[in-house]
Sequence to fold (515 residues):
Amino acid sequence: MSVEVTRNNDKINPWLACLPTMVSAFMFVLDETIANVALPHMAGSFSVSREESMWILTSYLIASGIVIPMVSWFSKVMGRKNFFIFSITLFTVASVLCGFAPNLETMIFARILQGFGGGGLLPVSQAILLENFKPAERGKAMAMFGLVIVIAPIIGPVIGGWITDNWSWPYIYFINLPIGILAIFLSKTLIFDPPYAQKQKDVKADFLGFFLLTIFLASLQIVLDKGNNADWFNTPWVCWLSTIALLTGITFFISQVKNKEALTDLSVFKDKNYSIGTFVQIIMQGVLLASLAILPQFLQALMGYDAFLSGLSMMPRGIGALCAMMLCATLSNVVDNRFLVVVGLSLMGVAGWMLGTLNLQIAPINIAIPNILYGLGLGLAMIPIITLSMATIKNEQMTNASGLQNLLKNIGGAFGTSIVATLLSRGGQKHQAMLIEHLTDFVQPYTERLQTMSGAFITQVDSHTATYMGQKMIYGQLMQQANLMAFIDAFRVFAIACIIIIPLIFLIQNLKKVN
Fold:
């Protein structure tokens, strides 16, 4: 039977205690992707460029990343329940401010507040959920939690596209108001702090660690977001910011090891399960966010889909994830959780390779099947690996360990998105250079195709213009094929990344042996 959370003779079923954590996590994760399809509309409302509007996304990620490793410290200063409710309140109020923002500057300020509020929601939710169940029963609980953290970013673009097209973009933020109020009410009613999570006296602040972490994350996020457009290290400011990020990151790590009152406790990385499981999750998060970014781009740029349809095309991934959650809840106590992770990563690898065989004559089913496999694999791998990574962590360390893990997953997602942007940009240029070598008068297929296309225009314009129009059409097809090949390369990189980390799973200690 499940362990019940007890305080002052009041017994709360742990499944009920899951409700506020799931509602809060859903609200936070949804906002990571719901605004993506609305960026052009926001840019138009604020009279700014698409490039400038990207700061709406970047500011949120930077702010939430700064707060995540501070969750343990805030929980000690305020008490974990109080900090959790404060975070929900700040997130909800900031969401309303986002909806009413009259210009880009106000919008960025509101998104920073939203990130500060949201940064603590996921690690605290995960820590509370894991604490409320015995290790043997955490598989079922994490399956329910995984339903939120896997499906929310998938349906985010769909919901955002529908709201933007049918109402207006501010409503993608206003919908957080009722969700936030519900989460606050449930948290006050159903969450209680164990002794080690209650407010503590004389908690010292690690201001140096906070400063170094802020500079590190801000510099790193800007480099990863803007580096590709700035031609990476060929641009001086990218080199300077990268150096600053590297130095502050190393200094932060040293300060956390030496300082007895450090912002974070890095000793959890001595746990083999935690270290390996966290690394695997970093790779998976990179693949997840990168694939969520690249597939809609492929459908819009090469297949002619609009924003809503490209977001809707991701729904089969949600169906696969939903099936995976049910399987995890059923099988987590029956089979070795490592087996589920291996199967999940294998399915993700197969799905990535299937997407790497696409062409421009595909039917919707060719997108749906790999997406279902992707969602199925992601669900089967993500939930057991979280459970395994936390299996040997003490409850007193759960909040700190969860915060560190979520911080590193955020960084992994940022790296994945940045890498895929570079793969598409540089890959398109590489394939264009390779293909254009075949567009010469000495290549018979090219000359025959040019004559055919020029002949279609010869009755309307002179021969010189007809030849030029034919060449332009062929070059357009070449560019299309070059971009297609770049997308194919990126999809295959995802597949390889999922497959090569499979051997690491066998280094993790079996959950049943831990129990």
Notes: The first helix runs from residue 14 to 33. Residues 1-10 have pLDDT under 50 and may be disordered. The two ends are 15 Å apart (CA to CA). The chain has three domains: 1-200, 205-260, 268-515.
